[in-house]
Prior knowledge:
The chain folds into two domains: 3-128, Cobalt-precorrin-4 Transmethylase, domain 1 (3-Layer(aba) Sandwich); 131-229, 2-Layer Sandwich (Methyltransferase, Cobalt-precorrin-4 Transmethylase, Domain 2). The protein contains eight helices and ten strands. It has helices spanning 19-27, 42-46, 48-51, 71-90, 109-116, 130-138, 158-167, 180-189, and strands spanning 3-8, 30-35, 59-64, 95-99, 121-125, 149-153, 170-174, 196-200, 208-210, 225-229. The protein is elongated.
Amino acid sequence: MATLYGVGVGPGDPLLLTLKACQLIANSSVVSYLANEQGESQARHIAREAFAQVKIEQQHIVIPMMMSTDRTLANIAYDQGAASIEAALNSGLDVVFLCEGDPLFFGSFSYLLQRLSAQHNIQVVPGVSSVHAAAAALQIPLTIQSESFAVISGRHSDAQIKAALLSHDSLVIMKAGLARPRILALLAETGRTTEANYLEYISRDNQLINRDVEQLENCKGPYFSLFVITRARDLTSVSYP
Length: 241
């Protein structure tokens, strides 16, 4: 029985692909990924080192994603993409779907999983998430000992973001670009501005790290951005429960 593989390609650095992801991409007869209206695919670009190892004839199923907030258009794109993938699976071909970051962490693969899991064999290959890549770039532990930790999205309401800032020691706010002015205001309101870091395009050539968000422009930022907020800690000593 043919298998659909949801493969995480990581946040941007092609060397952050796992060995399993690289092997699957290089040896699969069918590879699928999202692409914009210009035919550009972030996931395919990230996986370029793996594609350089391909030595077989490879079919590509491209799922077009238009820059639109219209859910109907997005659903149509995923419906059509799922149908093309299903046709390949029904013909006995394994399909590798590339997903930026991790397939099941704010991942586009979730929408295909929902459409195809009932009828087909599926496996998921985890990838390095932008959250963990951000912590590595900052060299800041996301959480230690009894600290609480949460991940939310800039798409949440002001009340939800404020509640998370007040409730958790460590917090990552994903998809922060469009919400950046709101998040900066909420950081100030909750007294957590000095504990916040802001990152864009993590692990990519144009990566930006801002450790002093008071100097950050109060305007919208790019889609690939996030805030990492952590409490001040003394890590010179270790205590156990």
